[in-house]
Amino acid sequence: MQLTTRPTRSSDLSKSELPFTLKDLKDAIPDYCFEPSTSRSLAYFFLDIGIIAGLYGIAYSLNSWLFFPVFWFVQGTMFWALFVVGHDCGHGSFSNHKWLNNLIGHLSHTPILVPFHGWRISHRTHHANTGNIDTDESWYPMAEEEYNAMSAIGKIMRYTFFLLAYPIYLFKRSPGRKGSHFIPKSDLFRPSEKWDVLTSTAFWSLFVMFLGWLGLQFGLGFLIKFYVMPYLVFVVWLDLVTYLHHTEPDIPWYRNDSWYFLKGALSTIDRDYGVINNIHHNIGTHVAHHLFLNMPHYHLKDATEAIKPILGDYYREAKDSVWTSFWRSARECIFVPNEGQKVYYQARR
């Protein structure tokens, strides 16, 4: 794989060795990049909702098995776009109004079976610990000794069917981490977040009951055609994109003693999803997002161009196609060494 620039594996970064600070990066970014536009954010939300509604109308009118595979892929992609709108809400970058962020977050996430507050809080943990093997929340590597101790079934689930992992993650969290996204007593949450978690769990449960009612009223085939299949496409998109955010042979991971926020935040990579970039709201522009998580998605590209000269060798941008990168990472990113403060993924022996 070729990257535009990257740190060498021999360097063991410390705070004093980074040639820039977070303030240096922030000062380089135009002020408008940090200001959400409520009207613009709402326009993206209503555009996604409108497209989803239109696709349902077309699919229901045609009711053709020739069209359904196309519908499943396109609608599942739009579910993923709607998730990214809720993602902005979770970061507070959708608007400057907390109530509106929570409202649109629930309207975006509940129909795709994501408990908004439960996800928002665990995602906060991910951003606060990115690149830290010991404390990161999602898609973190396991040590070689952990890999060797896994059962055959465990290895198959983690390394073969991981693009369908998200629904399981909501209930069981990542391997080695405990807690459900639906239960306030989970160690994911603070006591003060109890009612947020219960609110999202209640909305999620009501929507599951609604889906059950649809199945009873119109039949299981109807539910599968119009919801389950697009939902599975959405899950694959979610797992694929989030996996590729942080899984590359050349992306370093750190153990607790050598990790700190800025160094960990740079352990991600920007990717070009082609025409899908505009559909899924620039989620592939991920380096700037991890540095400044409260930045609206529609300003990420401008911010990236502003910080590239400062980041220099610490900015990563994939040059290979998404599918080439995915195939390579799935084969080569299996575990990390048992020891070492700065480590990289390794392939099976």
In short:
55% of the residues lie in helices and 1% in strands. By secondary structure, it is mostly helical.
Tell me about this structure:
The structure is a single chain. By secondary structure, this protein is mainly α. The chain has one domain. Helices cover 55% and strands 1% of the residues. It has helices spanning 22-28, 38-62, 68-91, 98-109, 116-128, 144-149, 152-159, 166-172, 194-218, 220-246, 261-265, 276-279, 287-291, 300-311, 322-332; strands at 253-254, 342-343. A two-stranded antiparallel ribbon has the order 1-2. The longest helix has 27 residues, at 220-246. The two termini are 21 Å apart. The model is unreliable at 1-16 (pLDDT under 50).
What tags apply to this protein structure?
disordered N terminus; two-stranded antiparallel ribbon; 1% strand; 349 residues; mainly alpha; globular
Helix fraction?
40-55%
- Class from secondary-structure proportions: mainly alpha
Residue stretches low in confidence (pLDDT < 50, at least 5 long) are 1-16
Strand order of the largest sheet: 1-2
Oligomer: single chain
From the spread of the alpha carbons, the general shape counts as globular
User: How many β-strand stretches?
Assistant: 2
SSE string, helix = H, strand = E?
Answer: HHHHHHHHHHEHHHHHE
Please tell me the total number of domains.
Answer: 1
Task: Report the span from N to C terminus.
Answer: 21 Å
